[in-house]
Design a protein that fits this description.
globular; Conserved hypothetical protein from pyrococcus furiosus pfu- 392566-001, domain 2; Conserved hypothetical protein from pyrococcus furiosus pfu- 392566-001, ParB domain; 14 helices; alpha+beta
Length: 416
């Protein structure tokens, strides 16, 4: 079974300054513009470790990975990062605005996932890509630390673990900060009771990777070196745990006439209208919004075409029926779109900006996959196409670190 343990985290010392200037989103959602802003926020912002700048003059001896290692070691020597004296679980409360503008709060906990026991019991729901895994492997080899946690969720039908975690956070937080408009609070929770409760609960409830498939696979492949993997875990009973779709951006429009044999295509007023239509379709399948420049359409794959494709896809029916599977298995190939021509974003606002500014010429709009469906498919061993889900908000990077090498005092932070 998957095992979560308290650990002695390395954390930013108070002398490092305002935590808001030190935190960052996960590496894979940071845009070039955001990267520059994070660099400017502080000379110790975590972006320098998780997504350092690249330069035309980079060499094997001087590159984003070697610079990350040099910064990490320097920050430890200089006391920018300090190791906690006792092992703890680290509760993280995020307060944010949902797409409708309502304020919501999500509560999770960062623990150390034992990579020697129970890795097979951690469920994966998306296929991974070679490029990101090679990138994170180089970073792991250079820095030799967990720099940001993976994001896991677990069933909790009665909400008992969520309640227990909330009760443990009754006192004032040990650290506070912001990531953009999002408020972040962190508690270092010591003592064996909460950890023991998680261990009992997870004996019958496998964890599901929500975000961080590439980092998980890299850590699992290097578990002789990693010792453990930081994991941010959230109860599926948390009402603020929401899964959004990931939309597709293209550098060129498609010829809609090629879809006439399989799809019904109808123009709509604009992209938001197309997205709203997709979100209203309920149990209907094979429904998409499509935008090309200022033009927008609602597209529905005809049931006979979808059924025929599903039967010949070689995929289990529950997986083949997903809109994301139909899009990548039937619609995009019919339109002559290769996988390498597709880019991704989980935010509709980014779609409209890309179309308006011309950084994308077309976009496919999808609806979310319900979290119970994601969990059930993963538990059955089925893996969806890459970028099928977008859990928002992401867990901030920079709250905790887990180094694999001895500190200046000669001790490796331990899991307990």
């Amino acid at each position: 079974m998957a095992t979560l343990k308290p650990f002695q985290a390395l954390r930013y010392a108070p002398a490092a300054g305002d935590l808001s200037a030190l935190l960052a989103p996960p590496y894979d959602v940071i845009t070039p513009t955001e990267q520059e802003a994070l660099y400017a926020a502080s000379p110790h912002n975590v972006v320098r470790l998780i997504l350092g700048r690249q330069h035309p003059t980079d060499t094997d001896a001087d590159n984003r990975y070697t610079r990350a290692r040099a910064d990490f070691l320097a920050w430890r020597r200089e006391g920018v990062l300090e190791q906690d004296a006792a092992a703890a679980l680290y509760a993280v409360k995020q307060t944010f605005a949902d797409p409708a503008g309502a304020r919501r709060t999500r509560l999770g906990v960062i623990a150390l996932l034992d990579l020697e026991a129970g890795v097979a019991d951690v469920l994966k729901h998306e296929r991974t890509l070679a490029g990101p895994k090679a990138d994170r492997t180089k970073l792991l080899e250079a820095v030799r630390a967990n720099l940001e946690p993976v994001f896991l969720v677990y069933p909790d039908e009665a909400g008992r673990m969520q309640q227990a975690l909330g009760d443990a956070c009754a006192g004032p937080p040990t650290a506070t900060g912001r990531v953009g408009a999002e408020e972040v609070q962190c508690w270092a929770l010591q003592g064996p009771d909460l950890a023991a409760a998680f261990e009992r609960h997870l004996a019958a409830s496998p964890l599901l990777i929500a975000d961080g498939h590439h980092r998980f696979e890299v850590a699992a492949a290097n578990r002789g070196r990693c010792r453990g993997l930081m994991a941010y875990c959230v109860s599926m009973a948390d009402p603020a745990l929401v899964v959004h779709p990931i939309h597709r951006l293209l550098d060129g429009p498609i010829d809609l006439d090629v879809l006439a044999a399989t799809c019904d295509v109808e123009p709509v007023a604009d992209g938001p209208a197309a997205l709203a239509w997709v979100q209203r379709q309920g149990a209907a399948q094979g429904c998409f919004g499509y935008c090309a420049g200022s033009a927008a359409y609602r597209i529905q794959v005809r049931s006979e075409a979808r059924t025929r494709w599903m039967a010949g896809s070689g995929q289990p029916q529950g997986l083949a029926a997903l809109d994301v599977s139909v899009l990548h298995g039937l619609v995009l190939p019919a339109a002559g779109v290769a996988p390498e021509q597709v880019r991704y974003t989980g935010k509709p606002a980014d779609v409209w900006t890309a179309l308006q500014e011309g950084t994308a010429q077309a976009a496919w709009l999808l609806r979310e996959i319900p979290l119970p469906t994601v969990y059930q498919l993963a538990r059955a061993g089925h893996v969806m196409p890459p970028k099928s889900t977008y859990f928002d908000p992401k867990v901030p990077s920079g709250l905790t670190f887990y180094p694999f090498e001895p500190s200046a005092a000669g001790a490796v932070p331990r899991a307990h």
